Amino acid sequence: MIEKAFIELISKENADIRLDEEMKSHTSFRIGGKADCLCSVKDVDSLRNIILLCREHGVPYFILGMGSNILVSDKGIEGLVIKLEGEFNEITLAEDNIVRCGAGSTLARLCTFARNMSLGGLEFAWGIPGSVGGAIYMNAGAYGGEIKDTVISVDYMDKDGNIRRCSGEELDFSYRHSAFTDTENIIIRGSFRLEPGSHDAIVERMQYLMDQRKTKQPINHPSAGSVFKRPENGYAAALIEECGLKGYEYGGAQVSPKHAGFIVNDKGASAADVLGLIDHIKKEVREKKNVELCCEVRFIGRV
Ligand SMILES: Cc1cc2nc3c(=O)[nH]c(=O)nc-3n(C[C@H](O)[C@H](O)[C@H](O)COP(=O)(O)OP(=O)(O)OC[C@H]3O[C@@H](n4cnc5c(N)ncnc54)[C@H](O)[C@@H]3O)c2cc1C
After folding, report:
1. Which residue in 90, 111, 162, 219 has the fewest CB atoms around it within 10 Å?
2. Which protein residue's CA is at the shortest distance from atom 10 of ligand 1?
3. 165 catalytic, yes or no?
């Protein structure tokens, strides 16, 4: 329960405040209980003031991107869920071939901007849902590319409200991991070094990869993408399928009949259903294949 006085203080900032916000409206899984408060912040000064107020009042906060890689608890999220909007959506061509993009922008807008400038390097990301902040945090990747291949620096706000810059090398990127994983730092914007290329070739590659996704993935069903990280020497989807779990249902959650690496929510699943299905899949794959699967999707909220 957040104090009224705290809400009054953050309401003075350049931010939209919504109390008891249903998180199922803000996640690609369409699952999740209520956040005590969803705060859509429009500028850096307001973000700083809000996180400092959170610290002063002992209110926890969580930074939400587009909610495409999270499973939110049925019991909701305590404290503030912060979304970056307004100036955090800006995209500019900073210097030749370097695009600077706010963390709140969708990755799709960044890819479109690059394509319109005939700059290549982000084609792999076309079709990955989510924000630029989420893509940097997760080191999102597909079809042989990863965000780390193009990021040259990231500006972030530390827990004291200072803006700092980190070079690509300092970001400790690895498979679905960055230096931001499990820290309180807030990604503000990233700079991406791209390559001039043929506009037609860029468009063609993006279209090809999107077609691949449409053919292989249940992109029109609520999900959070691949639930598990790729284990060493194999693919989670293949292991799950070999265990006979394609299409397997647990409550309202189902292993996608199209792609066994995805869990889909076509039948009003709860977070508890998804967690139950994850446990079942892990147990089967452990027993039948002797492989320990690790989750890529992040569980957020009250336990
Ligand atoms: C249909 C589908 C297909 C997908 N395909 C792919 C794929 O091919 N490759 C891939 O890598 N992923 C894929 N994903 C997963 C997901 O889209 C990516 O992980 C994406 O980068 C998450 O971004 P987001 O903005 O939605 O992050 P969220 O899910 O909102 O958050 C993820 C994490 O990032 C943190 N975060 C977000 N923004 C910030 C910020 N500004 N500062 C600090 N922390 C932040 C959050 O706190 C959270 O811990 C897919 C998902 C779906 C639904």
Report:
1. 162
2. 140
3. no
